[in-house]
Structure of 6-phosphogluconate dehydrogenase:
Amino acid sequence: MIGFIGIGIMGSRMAGRLLEAGHELVVYNRTKSKAEPLIEKGAVWADSPQEVGKQADIVFTMLANPQAIDAVAFAENGLLNGLKPGALWVDSSTISPSQSVKLADAAKEKNVRFLDAPVAGSTAPAEKGELIFFVGGEADALEEARPLLDIMGKEIHHKGPNGTGTSMKLVNNLMLGQSVAAFSEAVAFGESLGLDKEGIIKSLFAGPTAAPILHFKEKKIMNEDFENADFKINSIYKDMELASEEAYAHGFALPLSNLVKAFYGLCQQQGKGEYDFATIYDFLKKK
């Protein structure tokens, strides 16, 4: 039996891939209604993270923030009080490397193995099983999880011991936040010069500077449809803040990233935290 905790935008699609592949699944989410589509397809509902741990041999967690993962892990009815000795816990949440190491140490005390395995990719890759996993942890634990990761993703990058998977995720999302902000500013600048938005984007995509993520954001920026989020302002701001905190702990400056992070923070202050992070285009464009 496989456990899955965190049935949000990403978790629901990842768990759905496992279910569609024929695996038995036991699920928990703070809001049960979000898990109903999976339950209707055969997933078993558990009343707490502890109950998931009692039933599953491998448990995946995909949670929104560091506070949520601590609550799931360490509460009285939490996952660590349910996992069986020898079980494998795979955490795909985006948290700090130091928190991943703390979770790994807590799991080890229970004779449970732990992988930090956050992902690159949003809703469409999650639906298609095309995520990229950045994994930190023991190689033998990864080999046990690999067949399931292969169902949900197209690539697995083993970065080293616990904490290195989440380290790579922060590096990835640091560049993600900067790329979308730079593209948004370029498009908005072109419009301020009297250029047509569709033509600007077409010309930018023909050149060498357009990263793949920008193609995913083309329709949102063209249609200015930001309320239907693939990846929220709240999420990119949180990830860039985690990177900033980790950089401070390691004596490393992030001058460009901290400036971009502040712009996402201003979007948040405008009440757009639940909007797609491409809404930074709307924030930057000339009104």
